[in-house]
């Protein structure tokens, strides 16, 4: 009994004295770099219309793959380093942080927990994406920049997983729905959410941002092309080869986007 009590106290003490986000940044250059990149990514995604006043991006903690960083509940364009919170893979804020968190942090916890190959997740409500989830029309790559879409983005239907009532507010607001979204995403990098929009993932912040931005561009181009006539989509082979080629160069648009948002800041 004494041993159990001692372990409980020890575990509690470990939680109390866990390093804050700022302390981790001070102690580990990798954590500092990824947090700073996360802040810039929030601004880029807003500037590129991948998110608006809503939407968010997360990144796995490079020092602890079982936690991730995500801003508190603020507009993406306003995110600063001090807004970042650390979460566990159940979407629980760590280090005693009691600030209001995004209600849909379970999108991030669900995908990051079930997809160890992904380190960053984005969720937004870009209008060009919405018609595909609403109609069941497959969002497929129409050009090399969106080749990561492969044979088409899957669609998550929340009605199939919501309990006890299939009618919801459309939010991924708990662990179970986060897991269901991840299962719908499968091994893809982009998933549509009917009546809601999208989630995207990558093994880095840069790659996740690249995929979110170019999937939205693909949606706009595909919609216009379908009005004109028969669309010639990339074949699975073309998509695979194009993805391997183009994703080696994502530092180029990232440089453009990051310099653009830095120039716009006071």
Commentary on this structure:
- The chain has 266 residues and is α+β, with helices and mostly antiparallel strands.
- The chain has nine helices and seven strands; from the N terminus they run H-H-H-E-E-E-H-E-H-E-H-E-E-H-H-H.
- It has helices spanning 2-16, 21-27, 29-47, 105-114, 130-135, 175-185, 205-228, 236-246, 251-264; strands at residues 56-61, 64-71, 84-88, 120-124, 155-156, 190-193, 197-202.
- A seven-stranded mixed sheet has the order 3-2-1-4-7-6-5, with helices on both faces.
- Helix 6 (175-185) links the parallel strand 5 and strand 6 (190-193).
- Helix 3 packs across helix 9.
- It starts with a helix and ends with a helix.
Question: What does this entry show, briefly?
Answer:
The protein has 266 residues and is α+β, with helices and mostly antiparallel strands. It contains nine helices and seven strands; from the N terminus they run αααβββαβαβαββααα. Strands 3-2-1-4-7-6-5 form a seven-stranded mixed beta sheet, sandwiched between helices.
